[in-house]
């Protein structure tokens, strides 16, 4: 039973984050305003504190992690690296499968790695309140947790249908002292406007983002800012502690990964694990790096690389990324998480550079993988994470066919204890696969025609 | 941040369980039949496999843990010992507070320590199916998990009101492949009889036990047995791995506990942590050992030591224990877990011997402690565990008043992610305290008059 858990001492926790922007073969395309001109850091100041804006645009390869952040991360970090010996046995594969276990943080996912960092930098900057939006509540609960430990006020706009139908994440936020309200709400102009027109709307992430940003920028004391849980460069940066720890853990037992896998919704857990290995690949290492998404939301595998808004409500700067169009939302039949129309610009640029090999799975395949996982390894995974496990199983089977002792590393980004209704639907035969029809995708993509740099989408050049 | 997580290598996992029965100052009182005569091991053979019955009555101090069991426990064991530095800081106490984290097992509690062992011994004995009952589902999910990993069939009779109102643990059981049905069911004589008389009954643990035992003993192949999640000697034995690990971990950093605390419903998580320290106390060490219960179910703090049935339906042998009477069930207003009318005989005999100092808390005090914990340490605890935390906080405050650097150790027996509705009720002000009225208690205790050795209750002698 040697090496089924590879642990790091607290003293071996990484002291710096890794910034892939410093090593990408071509420079990262900047965010643009609606006029097509690059957004200056100052323009973001009402939304984010300047110390995080500096990280967002930093060209530095390594950025120090402050002790105040490490002191909170120590609660559950360094996270264990585990070897999936029971899945290996079940698959009868010569592959050695390792997973970085991010499910043991108090909110149950990788999200607090950045929630804690963002709350800490905001506090350092003199901010006393953060606002954010949340869908099913994973991000909202992570930020509520971080704000409580750093004694910041936290207000979460939660999409109304989740607020009503999935009360458990809401209760978690309340346990951690956050003010979680259903969006659209009567507390912002954006919310009131929507409620006037559609009093019975189930809400959407786009509306919730608009409300959270409005609440932040209209605070007359200037002490409120907005916080985002994925997509942006500084968020991905904070997650690289995952991959940096995993690297140390693999080195400890003399292993090097041949394949690195993570699921990608906005891109932050995938980037967190993989970017330190992308750096190795840039420096010549032979590694296959696979971001995985659902066929219901095929951003990386089918959508063009283009400038688009980060949110449905068109309030953010334009980001250069693979995008299905800002109005795209996967159909309700899709239960397997990962519902974002775009993808982190850093991840997308790495795809364009040929460093990553994105892949998509149907949700039935992913739930099947989740059940295989629960019945061999014993843990119940988040539906998002099961997409990664589907790819792990495919690669482990391939290694068996080829008779190769491949080393596979993946990110176990969260547990599924708050997502059991999806399992229930799967086990009861109430889920079906869904593939976005080409015509529908093109319909959403038309929205991009009116935006700056629209020619990028068709030419593939910039 | 030194020593906030004290980890053991896999190679340091205990290889033997500790049996307190070998060291108790007076021998354990035997279980009795309804005729008042000791139950022989053979009489239990239709219910449990003989290898577990041997453990139940074993006088040996140390019992080897088979490798087949360790190979499964390695998934999450050795469990971390953590220091609650953030709670210490919040309370400004000179006490050093350590907790054994049993919440990170796949089912989220200490329960799989015995579920895995029981499934393994049953399999070894040639059994291919286990039955059990479950209330809210913590035990049922642990046994489902263990049976899946050992390839045994598992059937769980779940109290109907929980089956209908708390579907998540049921889904967990299904993810692990168990057959979980609402009790009373149409699948047993016991169930059918109840349904005929009361078709709309919410069910009870007593009925579910009767169904599970009937299903086991009536299997004509002889390959089915019944499994219990607490109370019995062999169950407590399997849990001692918790305290044995904790002892090694404290030794590693040169600490010895002054106070050991655990919540006690049936007694297994408390016993698991504390019994190795009870042994030290028997050998002269100065340790205060505190089992904690709710005032709504004051078994150890107010009930007599007497022979009573282990179940509401009066199908088990009579056990010598503190008991509120087998018909007692706490009122629905009690949300904080720990609802059993009796207590493990080994724990009770240690109380009678003066080795333990039981204590009871109101549920509002316990939920208050749970919120303090979540907002300082960051983790959301099971309502049962919060009873232990209430005692920890009281002892840490006392240490502050006395200016003493006490070392407090407690068992963090499970997370509260499946119990968030209790938190919601508390935060919404919908919970109240409840103390069992003396007259009501005496009413339930009258049932004991008709049982063998009834004089024990009043004389306190046997």
Can you walk me through this structure?
The structure is a homodimer of 462-residue chains. In chain A, helix 1 packs across helix 10, helix 4 (112-124) packs across helix 10 (233-239) and helix 11 crosses helix 12. The mean pLDDT of chain A is 95. Chain A is built from 19 helices and 15 strands. The first copy, chain A, has 462 residues and is an alpha/beta fold. In chain A, the strands form four sheets. A seven-stranded mixed sheet of chain A has the order 1-4-5-15-10-11-14, with helices on both faces. A four-stranded parallel sheet of chain A has the order 8-7-6-9, with helices on both faces. Chain A is globular and about 60 Å long. The A-B interface holds A 1-2, 4-5, 7, 10, 70-72, 74-75, 86, 104, 106, 108, 145, 148-149, 167-168, 171-172, 174-177, 371, 374-375, 377-380, 417-418, 420-421, 423-424, 427 and B 1-2, 4-5, 7, 10, 70-72, 74-75, 86, 104, 106, 108, 145, 148-149, 167-168, 171-172, 174-177, 371, 374-375, 377-380, 417-418, 420-421, 423-424, 427.
Features:
four-stranded parallel beta sheet; 19 helices; alpha/beta; homodimer; Rossmann fold; globular; seven-stranded mixed beta sheet; 462 residues; 15% strand
Taking all residues together, what is the mean pLDDT of chain A? Answer: 95
What CATH architecture of the domain at 5-12 and 64-108 and 234-450 in chain A do you see? Answer: 3-Layer(aba) Sandwich
Instruction: State the helicity of chain A in percent bands.
Output: 25-40%
Determine and state the CATH class of the domain at 5-12 and 64-108 and 234-450 in chain A.
Answer: Alpha Beta
């Amino acid at each position: 039973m040697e090496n089924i858990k590879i642990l790091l001492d607290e003293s071996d926790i990484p002291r710096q984050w890794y910034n892939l922007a410093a090593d990408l073969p071509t420079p990262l395309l900047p965010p643009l305003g609606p006029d097509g001109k690059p957004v200056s850091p100052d323009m973001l100041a009402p939304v984010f504190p300047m110390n995080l804006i500096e990280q967002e645009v930093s060209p530095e390869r390594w950025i120090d992690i402050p002790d105040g952040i490490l002191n909170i991360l120590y609660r559950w970090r360094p996270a264990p690296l585990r070897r999936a010996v029971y899945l290996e046995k079940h698959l009868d594969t010569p592959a050695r499968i390792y997973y970085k276990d991010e499910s043991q943080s108090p909110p149950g996912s990788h999200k607090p790695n950045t929630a804690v960092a963002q709350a800490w930098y905001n506090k350092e900057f003199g901010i006393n309140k953060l606002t954010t939006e949340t869908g099913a509540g994973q991000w909202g609960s992570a930020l509520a947790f971080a704000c409580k430990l750093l004694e910041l006020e936290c207000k979460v706009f939660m999409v109304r249908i989740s607020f009503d139908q999935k009360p458990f994440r809401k209760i978690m936020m309340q346990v951690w002292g956050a003010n979680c309200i259903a969006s659209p709400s009567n507390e912002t102009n954006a919310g009131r406007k929507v409620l006037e027109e559609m009093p019975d709307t189930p809400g959407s992430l786009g509306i919730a983002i608009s409300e959270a940003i409005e609440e932040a920028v209209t605070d007359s004391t200037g002490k409120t800012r907005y916080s985002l849980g994925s997509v942006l460069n500084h968020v991905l940066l904070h997650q690289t502690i995952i991959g940096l720890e995993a690297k140390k853990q693999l080195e400890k037992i003399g292993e090097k990964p041949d394949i690195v896998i993570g699921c990608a919704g906005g891109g932050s857990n995938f980037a967190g694990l993989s970017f330190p290995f992308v750096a190795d690949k840039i420096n010549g290492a032979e590694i296959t790096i696979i971001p995985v998404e659902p066929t219901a939301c095929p951003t990386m595998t089918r959508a063009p690389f283009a400038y688009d808004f980060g949110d449905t409500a068109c309030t953010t700067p334009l980001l250069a990324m693979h995008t299905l169009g800002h109005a795209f939302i996967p159909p309700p039949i899709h239960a397997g998480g990962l519902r974002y129309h775009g993808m982190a610009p850093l991840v997308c640029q790495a795809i364009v550079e040929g460093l990553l090999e994105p892949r998509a799975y149907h949700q039935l395949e992913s739930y099947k993988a989740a059940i295989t996982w629960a019945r061999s390894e014993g843990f119940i995974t988040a539906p998002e994470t099961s997409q990664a496990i589907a790819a792990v199983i495919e690669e482990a089977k391939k290694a068996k066919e080829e008779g190769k002792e491949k080393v596979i590393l993946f990110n176990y980004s969260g547990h599924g204890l708050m997502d059991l209704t999806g399992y229930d639907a799967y086990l009861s035969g109430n889920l079906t696969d869904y593939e976005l029809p080409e015509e529908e995708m093109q319909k959403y993509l038309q929205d991009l025609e009116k935006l700056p740099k629209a020619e990028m989408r068709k030419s593939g050049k910039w």
